[in-house]
Amino acid sequence: MSDNNKIAVLGGGSFGTAIAQVLAGNGHAVKLWMRDAAQAEAIRESGRNDRYFPGLTLSPLVEPVTAIQATLETADVIFVALPSKAFRPFVADTRPFFRPGQIVISTTKGIEREGFRLMSEILVEALPQTHVGVLSGPNLAGEMMQKELTATVIASPDARVREETQRLLGCGYFRVYANIDMYGVELGGALKNIYAVISGLAAALQVGENTKAMIISRSLAEMSRFAVALGANPLTFLGLAGVGDLFVTCTSSMSRNFRVGYAVGQGTPLEQAVAELGQVAEGINTLELVREKAQELGIPMPLVRGLHEILYSDMTIQQVIKGLMTAAQNSDVEFILPRQA
Ligand SMILES: NC(=O)C1=CN([C@@H]2O[C@H](COP(=O)(O)OP(=O)(O)OC[C@H]3O[C@@H](n4cnc5c(N)ncnc54)[C@H](OP(=O)(O)O)[C@@H]3O)[C@@H](O)[C@H]2O)C=CC1
Ligand SMILES: O=C(CO)COP(=O)(O)O
């Protein structure tokens, strides 16, 4: 591909803005598409996306736009940063505007209810003429806007997608590692949100450092167990999109999923916690879907079950914790010592 690729980022929220800013910092003109004309106009006037990053000036190479047809028809590389619930309807509505040969990269960390589909699966199915990839990793949008040193993963079976994304995004503060396990990378990004909610809840309870380490390690064990049952490569979970993203969202109050868990741990009802956040916390939706899938496939997921009980049953947090801590003793790394049934 040439150096003057036309680039579009879809979604003018936290992550869309952060990705557009990295691209623009590398000298690329970026169309940042958003649904809200008033927001686009405000960004044009102020040079800032105050709804998501108050006070932070955007690069002049980031152009806010609202005309979706023209944006898609003229783009060579498209990053999608929409919440998972909006993903399928958006792709269905805009499908005729995509062109053969375009690179389309999902940055969305969620799962679709119907058929338990990941976003890349929706793209591959709906846009077979395009080249699909997934961008995922420990990438708090707020830190990227501050140019904190950050690494991410571009996953695609297509070498052109991997190399082009590395070229477009890579810079002195943003490193882009490649993987071919698109399914595993994407699943890692979606699953960790559940455990970020749990970690936020634990932080509100002021648990000890041993406890935090136990939660993160057992979360990784549970995520990998689930992913293997679905056919993903567990080794992907050792990388940035697995343990890396799990670590950042389970330890940072910048994570929206962590913040929802924290609020619930402090006694705020779930609905109120989500409403007060005002941004997407994918983990709540993903929890429901993963719990159903795990039940259907018979995959033991005690942390998922425990969080669901805390959020949706009459059980107290202390009762759930007691149940988890007094369950039958089991294997540490079940790929070495198989888990007891
Ligand atoms: N923030 C982060 O640190 C990271 C987020 N992600 C993932 O990126 C995805 C997007 O998250 P993020 O940007 O943070 O979320 P935000 O809540 O910050 O922003 C969501 C954006 O999507 C727009 N949107 C919502 N529904 C629709 C719709 N139906 N049609 C068109 N646009 C819509 C919103 O528009 P409006 O403003 O008008 O409501 C907003 O621009 C999530 O899956 C998240 O997990 C991935 C890595 C890091
Ligand atoms: O995925 C993220 C960082 O990698 C962002 O997490 P939250 O959606 O919880 O803010």
UniProtKB/TrEMBL annotation:
<dbReference type="GO" id="GO:0051287">
    <property type="term" value="F:NAD binding"/>
</dbReference>
<dbReference type="InterPro" id="IPR006109">
    <property type="entry name" value="G3P_DH_NAD-dep_C"/>
</dbReference>
<dbReference type="GO" id="GO:0005829">
    <property type="term" value="C:cytosol"/>
</dbReference>
<keyword id="KW-1208">Phospholipid metabolism</keyword>
<protein>
    <recommendedName>
        <fullName>Glycerol-3-phosphate dehydrogenase [NAD(P)+]</fullName>
        <ecNumber>1.1.1.94</ecNumber>
    </recommendedName>
</protein>
<feature type="active site" description="Proton acceptor">
    <location>
        <position position="192"/>
    </location>
</feature>
<dbReference type="InterPro" id="IPR011128">
    <property type="entry name" value="G3P_DH_NAD-dep_N"/>
</dbReference>
<keyword id="KW-0521">NADP</keyword>
<feature type="binding site">
    <location>
        <position position="141"/>
    </location>
    <ligand>
        <name>NAD(+)</name>
    </ligand>
</feature>
<feature type="binding site">
    <location>
        <position position="109"/>
    </location>
    <ligand>
        <name>sn-glycerol 3-phosphate</name>
    </ligand>
</feature>
<keyword id="KW-0444">Lipid biosynthesis</keyword>
<comment type="similarity">
    <text>Belongs to the NAD-dependent glycerol-3-phosphate dehydrogenase family.</text>
</comment>
<dbReference type="GO" id="GO:0046474">
    <property type="term" value="P:glycerophospholipid biosynthetic process"/>
</dbReference>
<feature type="binding site">
    <location>
        <position position="256"/>
    </location>
    <ligand>
        <name>NAD(+)</name>
    </ligand>
</feature>
<feature type="binding site">
    <location>
        <position position="52"/>
    </location>
    <ligand>
        <name>NADPH</name>
    </ligand>
</feature>
<feature type="binding site">
    <location>
        <position position="192"/>
    </location>
    <ligand>
        <name>sn-glycerol 3-phosphate</name>
    </ligand>
</feature>
<dbReference type="InterPro" id="IPR008927">
    <property type="entry name" value="6-PGluconate_DH-like_C_sf"/>
</dbReference>
<feature type="binding site">
    <location>
        <position position="35"/>
    </location>
    <ligand>
        <name>NADPH</name>
    </ligand>
</feature>
<comment type="function">
    <text>Catalyzes the reduction of the glycolytic intermediate dihydroxyacetone phosphate (DHAP) to sn-glycerol 3-phosphate (G3P), the key precursor for phospholipid synthesis.</text>
</comment>
<dbReference type="InterPro" id="IPR006168">
    <property type="entry name" value="G3P_DH_NAD-dep"/>
</dbReference>
<feature type="binding site">
    <location>
        <position position="256"/>
    </location>
    <ligand>
        <name>sn-glycerol 3-phosphate</name>
    </ligand>
</feature>
<feature type="binding site">
    <location>
        <position position="14"/>
    </location>
    <ligand>
        <name>NADPH</name>
    </ligand>
</feature>
<keyword id="KW-0520">NAD</keyword>
<comment type="pathway">
    <text>Membrane lipid metabolism; glycerophospholipid metabolism.</text>
</comment>
<dbReference type="GO" id="GO:0005975">
    <property type="term" value="P:carbohydrate metabolic process"/>
</dbReference>
<feature type="binding site">
    <location>
        <position position="137"/>
    </location>
    <ligand>
        <name>sn-glycerol 3-phosphate</name>
    </ligand>
</feature>
<dbReference type="Pfam" id="PF01210">
    <property type="entry name" value="NAD_Gly3P_dh_N"/>
</dbReference>
<dbReference type="InterPro" id="IPR013328">
    <property type="entry name" value="6PGD_dom2"/>
</dbReference>
<dbReference type="GO" id="GO:0046168">
    <property type="term" value="P:glycerol-3-phosphate catabolic process"/>
</dbReference>
<feature type="binding site">
    <location>
        <position position="109"/>
    </location>
    <ligand>
        <name>substrate</name>
    </ligand>
</feature>
<feature type="binding site">
    <location>
        <position position="245"/>
    </location>
    <ligand>
        <name>sn-glycerol 3-phosphate</name>
    </ligand>
</feature>
<feature type="binding site">
    <location>
        <position position="109"/>
    </location>
    <ligand>
        <name>NADPH</name>
    </ligand>
</feature>
<feature type="binding site">
    <location>
        <position position="256"/>
    </location>
    <ligand>
        <name>NADPH</name>
    </ligand>
</feature>
<feature type="binding site">
    <location>
        <position position="282"/>
    </location>
    <ligand>
        <name>NADPH</name>
    </ligand>
</feature>
<feature type="domain" description="Glycerol-3-phosphate dehydrogenase NAD-dependent C-terminal">
    <location>
        <begin position="181"/>
        <end position="321"/>
    </location>
</feature>
<keyword id="KW-0594">Phospholipid biosynthesis</keyword>
<dbReference type="GO" id="GO:0046167">
    <property type="term" value="P:glycerol-3-phosphate biosynthetic process"/>
</dbReference>
<feature type="binding site">
    <location>
        <position position="255"/>
    </location>
    <ligand>
        <name>sn-glycerol 3-phosphate</name>
    </ligand>
</feature>
<dbReference type="Pfam" id="PF07479">
    <property type="entry name" value="NAD_Gly3P_dh_C"/>
</dbReference>
<dbReference type="GO" id="GO:0141152">
    <property type="term" value="F:glycerol-3-phosphate dehydrogenase (NAD+) activity"/>
</dbReference>
<feature type="binding site">
    <location>
        <position position="15"/>
    </location>
    <ligand>
        <name>NADPH</name>
    </ligand>
</feature>
<feature type="binding site">
    <location>
        <begin position="11"/>
        <end position="16"/>
    </location>
    <ligand>
        <name>NAD(+)</name>
    </ligand>
</feature>
